[in-house]
Structures are given as C-alpha cells and as structure tokens.
C-alpha cells in the first residue's frame, strides 16, 4: 500500500507537492489469514437408459480423496501428532477452535493410520540405510502416552545424514538390535545403558 503525503504543503500552504519516486521508509506488518476449511462436495447422480432400463451411476473424479479429510488437512494432522505430540482429543479440539470443523476421535485416528501407511516405505528405507552406515549415534528416552501405565521408549539412531526413530515397548537389548540390526558392523556411539553390551568392544564408543 502506498501512503502519499498530504497534497497541501504545511509550510507555505500551496497545493503543489511533487511525490518522490522512491519511498523514504517501508513498514511491514506480518499477519496470517483467518483459518478456514475449504469443503468440496461431490454430488453423484444416477441415470437410467430409456431403452433397456440400465441404471448408470456417476463417479467421483479420480484425484478426489476417498475419505472426508483432504491431503493438506491430512498432512496438518500428521504434523500436530508427530511433530508437536498432540493427542487425538487435543487435535480434535484444536481443529474445532481453529478451523471451526468437527471430527470424531475415530476419524483423526484413521487419518494418522493413513499417513503412517504412506510413510512406511520411506521409514523402512531410512532404517535400511542407517543399518549400513559406518558410524551411528544411538539413544533412547522414555515416551509416556496419554497417561497410560505401560511406558514406551523412543529410540533414535543417527548417521551422518539420516535419523531413524521408532517407538518400542522396552529399553532392552532386543530393542537395540531391532534398531541397529543384529549384524551391524559399524561403529556405535552410546551412553552406558547396558542394552548395548552385546556390541563388540572395538565397535562400541561410550559418550
């Protein structure tokens, strides 16, 4: 928006102001648009042949999501859960307050499952690459979920250019082998947790 000076000179009172080509100051205000959900409705009609009475039904376009949650909202839900660790009920509450849209707990859970299945091949590819890296750092930390009594553990294996994470039910040697692979031959940097004692001394560096 261009803010022009008053056309009347405050000094002499003449209305003959020449506006310079370049602004002497720029002021920027950062704002976000009001969040809203774009709802697309596809009405499917049927028809009937006048000659043989065959019923013909319309179909949705091939690129339309099969569920009620589109790809952008699906990604947003995945980020809320995976990156910001919101529970399903908190995601439901946030979507209602922020976007004015209501989804059931089951719908959000189904959305998370769908995203997880989409990312599974990539997750496996990262694991396979990590397990052949020459040097990795490994750590694990407690991962409580929604007040459940059974404690889970978030395991992390990092190479020079990749990070592989997985939630497991224990902090055991079995879990460590699940993350690294039973026959891992590279160097492993860990803390003094006994779960890594199965590694050969020459390939195990303590931090």
TrEMBL record:
Domain Transposase IS66 central: 67-207
Domain of life: Bacteria
InterPro entries hit by this protein: Transposase-related, Transposase_IS66_central
Pfam families in alphabetical order: DDE_Tnp_IS66
Classification via PANTHER family: BLL1576 PROTEIN (PTHR33678)
Protein name: IS66-like element ISVa8 family transposase
Species this protein is from: Vibrio aestuarianus
């Amino acid at each position: 928006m261009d803010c022009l000076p008053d056309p009347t000179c405050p000094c002499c009172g003449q209305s003959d102001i020449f506006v310079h080509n370049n602004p002497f100051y720029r002021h920027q205000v950062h704002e976000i648009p009001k969040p809203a959900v774009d709802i697309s409705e596809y009405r499917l009609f049927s028809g009937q042949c006048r000659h043989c009475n065959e019923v013909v039904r319309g179909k949705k376009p091939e690129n339309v999501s099969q569920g009620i949650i589109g790809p952008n909202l699906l990604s947003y839900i995945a980020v809320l859960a995976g990156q910001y660790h919101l529970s399903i009920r908190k995601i439901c509450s946030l979507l209602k307050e922020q976007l004015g849209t209501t989804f059931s707990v089951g719908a959000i859970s189904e959305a998370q499952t769908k995203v997880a299945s989409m990312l599974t091949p990539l997750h496996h590819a990262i694991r396979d690459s990590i397990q052949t890296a020459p040097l990795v750092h490994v750590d694990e930390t407690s991962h409580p979920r929604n007040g459940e009594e059974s404690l889970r553990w978030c395991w992390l294996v990092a190479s020079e250019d990749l990070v592989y994470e997985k939630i497991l039910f224990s902090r055991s040697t079995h879990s460590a082998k699940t993350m690294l692979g039973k026959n891992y031959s590279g160097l492993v940097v860990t803390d003094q947790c006994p779960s890594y004692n199965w590694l050969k001394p020459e390939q195990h560096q303590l931090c």
